[in-house]
Amino acid sequence: MTNKNPFNPALFAEDAVSAETKAINDALIDLLEKSDDNWEIGVAEARARRDRGEGPFPAVPKSDRAVTRTIPGKGGDIELRIIAPENPKGIYLHFHGGGWVFGSADGQDPMLERIADTCGLTCVSVEYRLAPEHPYPAGPDDCEAAALWLAKNAKSEFGSDLLTVGGESAGGHLAAVTLLRMRDRHGFTGFAGANLVFGAFDLRWTPSARAFGDDRYLILRTHDLHKFDECFIPQGMDAGDPDISPLFADLKGMPPALFSVGTDDALLDDSLFMHARWAAAGNDAELAIYPGGAHGFVAFPGELAASAVARMDAFLKRVSG
After folding, report:
1. Which of 104, 229, 295, 320 is catalytic?
2. Which domain holds residue 77?
3. Mean pLDDT (whole number) for 208-236
4. Which of 14, 40, 295, 306 is 20 to 30 Å apart from 117, CA to CA?
């Protein structure tokens, strides 16, 4: 077993944060504090503005290489957005972030193009149903259905049955939940690796999430986490259920995983705790900690993001042979 754990206290020190990262974080806080609050304008309007590129961040360019495939799911048809390299050696099943409320399968095409070309993996991003219109278990059900379809059809559809999985934020959560469902419901443990990027693994919220507060609008505040819970978790359900908070699951038999997180992220503890439990269950686990990295930092320019992206690509290339 490999347990690459650079848990160096120096990574959390103020002087470990580069001037560039501090400037990026300050700019993000300034930008978001001047922008309309998603919860005040409402989910539908916030989504519409994102789609039009009228929110605080510009619209992400769409890939002209992407194709859409539709598969059946419990709640109806599920769209898979597929971006493939010329000679794929495997598949990367991807779940987008956005708190189970925002985001879309076509919202990170440049990232998926990079993974396809750099790692040689056909990227399959899932258009799972979003809360609050479709609360738990709708999104996880769609992700499970996509994983099960790939387990049965990847070889015939894409020329390879080597599967990897990953996602960012809520997508990291959905990746972990999907791995557990595939093991427990279908007896499938054939994923070669999991790329779990600043994921949410405890929806009761960890100490770092609760302590982050609302004074600094650095992408994700404690207030946002509670609002996401309200949208995603039906009233009366236990947020500590392992199918909702995979930190509490039996993690035996999970694939090698890379956990990536910045030290200025409300979800810092989620990665620290989940990495520890992943390794304690006997699985290969790597933990990559980035000084000063905010939630979502890999999407912003700078050396910190570049180093994280390079390590994630190297991990995916290694586990896919």
Report:
1. 295
2. 38-319
3. 97
4. 295
Structure tokens at 19: 């001037």
Prediction pTM value: 0.97
Segment 79-88, tens digit of pLDDT: 999 999 999 9
Determine whether 295 is an active site residue: yes
Assigned domain for 89 exists: yes
**257 has which bridge partners?**
194, 285
Let me know: does 169 contact 108? Beta carbons within 8 Å.
Answer: no
The verdict on residue 31 lying in a domain is: no
CB atoms within 10 A of CB 282: 12
With a CB cutoff of 8 Å and minimum separation 6, the contacts of 71 are: 77, 78, 80, 145, 146, 149
Whether 265 is catalytic: yes
- Which of these is catalytic: 169, 208, 260, 271? 169
Contact assessment for residue 117 and residue 85, using Cβ atoms and an 8 Å cutoff: yes
Q: Quick one: which of 127, 92, 250, 258 has its CA closest to 180?
A: 250
> Which one, of 276, 321, 316, 294, lies nearest residue 118 by Cα?
316
169 catalytic? Reply is yes
CB atoms within 10 A of CB 24: 20
Q: What is the pLDDT of residues 83-110, one digit of tens each?
A: 999 999 999 999 999 999 999 999 999 9
Look at the block and give the residue holding tokens 């979800």.
267
Helix (H) or strand (E) holding 213: none
Give tens-digit pLDDT for 17-38.
999 999 999 999 999 999 999 9
Q: Are 176 and 244 in contact (CB under 8 A)?
A: no
Given a contact cutoff of 8 angstroms between Cβ atoms, the answer to whether 72 and 197 are in contact is: no
**Which one, of 301, 299, 298, lies nearest residue 258 by Cα?**
298
Residue 5 lies in a domain: no
Per-residue pLDDT of 33-59, as tens digits, reads: 999 999 999 999 999 999 998 989 998
Looking at the 3D structure of the chain, how many domains does it have? 1
Q: Residue 77's domain is classified under what CATH number?
A: 3.40.50.1820
Tokens of 182: 């595939």
CB 201, CB 245: distance < 8 Å:
yes
Q: Is residue 10 part of a domain?
A: no
